[in-house]
């Protein structure tokens, strides 16, 4: 299989190279202007692009096109239309107009809208996002689009994401201008999401109702071996996994997704894929596609790719690391320390802005990653705690301390001090410090937000991050805008100093997994929003509403609708889990235990009939244990069902979500304990589902 990778790469993408060759020069220029500066796209340009796109798509085997969008679920949506247009003589021609490219009209009424549906029209429309390239998948031309209601309310994740990128661009430009930078015209945020996942055998998967309905196991005794030997992380890839990863890379490359790094993760059967970073909205689209392709390719290889945050209890769950930075159109990474004092000043201003943003909006960042699945991960021993704090590393922490105390920074080793720039220290980036327990870590020239769940779109956390940083930058600009040039150095220094003093509480370089940190964080007044219902309440607080409506990311209506959708999603997830668990216990596990007990009883009585005074105490012991466990399960089942029914009947969504969290989930855990104990006493051959051992170690 000698493939020419550069040729393969992006072969299914309507990228810049194709556009340049396919479009008339003036049309190409006009489109580029729209893509780069966000200017309005004229209809003649759209028409020209549509023709070129259609021709290219048909050449590459496409028969249909679709407006591809991201409703307020974690999935993408699409409705396919063919290019055919019948002619009067009974033939067809292949048609695609600029109007069809720019705007689509799917029925919005069946997507979650969280109350927006009641007040606004059900009809929605999709609008082309020319900044994310179109591509071909399954013989269909995919056009990335935003999804809005007819009255303009955002019904998707892309619209607020693009709004947040705009907000950051505007505010960051203001700050750069004040700092004397006149060249930069545009600032984008960049994201590289590292994606974790599990692979399990498809045949085994199909025997697990919990995996099928919930994406995670609801019961399951621990396997004799878990991840304690630490032999999986970065371990040799098994042939089946390696074949999968090769296939996956190729499929992603064809779609122009720069899949770069792949390796085994900590847990058995767990792996990771990381792409090279990209502009945020493209990275978000690509991550959605990556998750989809991961599942599809796994199916081809007789496996199932699990993206749930916690598929198995007792071993690590899966997350996503959102590597994030800001980048200028002149190619400067604003979170790169740089070499000159001026670059360092710029870096420190943006660094400190992020620190303040994370401290001011820690609750929103936590909320942006809240889901039923991620609740099993955050705060568990392998994942960052639910407390949002920042890791800076020793070097940078020292730098900030020196600013705070008006001292010159004296660095270690490679670090130098530059006296020219007042007290702003000059240092080189230190890449060696690594802290895997921090939820928000500075890693040399970017921040890595590590609380994201593996299954969720990365849009939400980036919407919050962009907006929170935009807000702080706008405050900075406000403070500095009237400062005369000769006083700017001092003013910047003072601004940095006061910001550091006010927000250093969010910086924590220690081990985030310890109980001491939880106590310490409480003393520092940091949020510790442990569960989704607890976190979501804060979503619509006055402070957060002000931020998000102030920067026009959401209208008040949109914000409240999102709060409702998130609550509803949590409630539905827990309801499905409760029902699935009841079904497995009632229909599969309890009957299997009965059958097994019958076998044991028969064995005992047969033994007795052959050798009358033989001891059957081992059978008797087992029967006693299994009987007790069955009783406990039958009782636990009744409690679970009753509590679920009571919770389901609740009117108030917030109270309902809280009840699922505090009551139903606890019932499920109690029930699980008996089920797992019983499972451990049963032979694999009579168990109605494959064990953890099989699921985790059979590939
Ligand atoms: P690790 O954090 O595992 O050591 P890397 O530092 O190489 O790995 O990068 C992890 C991810 O961060 C990759 O997806 C990479 O493309 C991305 N990344 C690197 N630089 C930036 C940046 N400026 N903005 C956003 N993401 C970035
Ligand atoms: Mg990383």
Short key terms for the protein model shown above:
Four Helix Bundle (Hemerythrin (Met), subunit A), binds magnesium ion, globular, 49% helix, 699 residues, binds adenosine-5'-diphosphate, six-stranded mixed beta sheet, Ubiquitin-like (UB roll), 24 helices, alpha+beta, single chain, nine-stranded mixed beta sheet, 3 domains
What order do the helices and strands come in, and which of them pair?
Blueprint: H1 5-8, H2 16-22, H3 25-37, H4 43-59, E1 64-68, E2 80-82, E3 84-86, E4 92-94, H5 98-102, E5 103-104, H6 116-119, E6 124-128, E7 135-137, E8 140-149, H7 158-178, E9 187-201, H8 202-205, H9 209-214, H10 239-254, E10 259-264, E11 270-275, E12 278-279, H11 280-300, E13 303-306, E14 319-328, H12 341-360, H13 362-368, H14 372-375, E15 390-391, H15 394-404, E16 440-442, E17 447-453, H16 459-480, H17 488-503, H18 515-523, H19 532-536, H20 542-550, H21 556-610, H22 617-648, H23 653-681, H24 692-697
Parallel strand pairs: 1-8, 15-16
Antiparallel strand pairs: 1-2, 3-4, 5-6, 6-8, 7-8, 9-11, 9-12, 9-13, 9-14, 10-11, 14-17, 16-17
Helix pairs in contact: 3-4, 7-16, 10-11, 12-16, 12-17, 13-16, 15-17, 21-22, 21-23, 22-23
